[in-house]
Amino acid sequence: MRAIAYDQHGEAGQVLRLSEQPAPPAAPAAGQVQVRVLSRPIHPGDLAGVESLPGGLRQR
């Protein structure tokens, strides 16, 4: 599985990185479901936290 992560605030194109993560379990447990997501949009609010814009959460 791939994930996009960051460990410092700044311009999204400079601080975001793509990494491989361990694959989730092969099958969901009882009472759970597994959803495959092929793509997802990036909401401007998502970038506010990365870029530490006003209104976004600031890392301490």
3D architecture notes:
The chain has 60 residues and is an alpha+beta fold. The chain has one domain (1-23, 34-60). Helices cover 20% and strands 13% of the residues. It contains 2 helices and 2 strands. The chain has a two-stranded antiparallel sheet. The mean pLDDT is 82.
SSE diagram, text form:
Elements: E1 2-5, H1 12-15, E2 17-20, H2 44-51
Antiparallel strand pairs: 1-2
The gist of it:
This protein has 60 residues and is an alpha+beta fold. Helix content is 20%, strand content 13%.
Any descriptors?
alpha+beta; 60 residues; 20% helix; 2 strands
Helix content: 10-25%
Largest sheet: 2 strands, antiparallel
Q: What's the shape?
A: elongated
Gap between N and C termini, in Å? 29 Å
Number of helices: 2
Strand content: 5-15%
**C-alpha Rg (nearest Å):** 15 Å
Give the strand line-up of the largest sheet: 1-2
Structural class: alpha+beta
Average the pLDDT over all residues and give the rounded result.
82
Number of beta-strand segments: 2
Count structural domains: 1
Any low-confidence stretches, pLDDT <50, length ≥5?
none
Order of helices and strands: EHEH
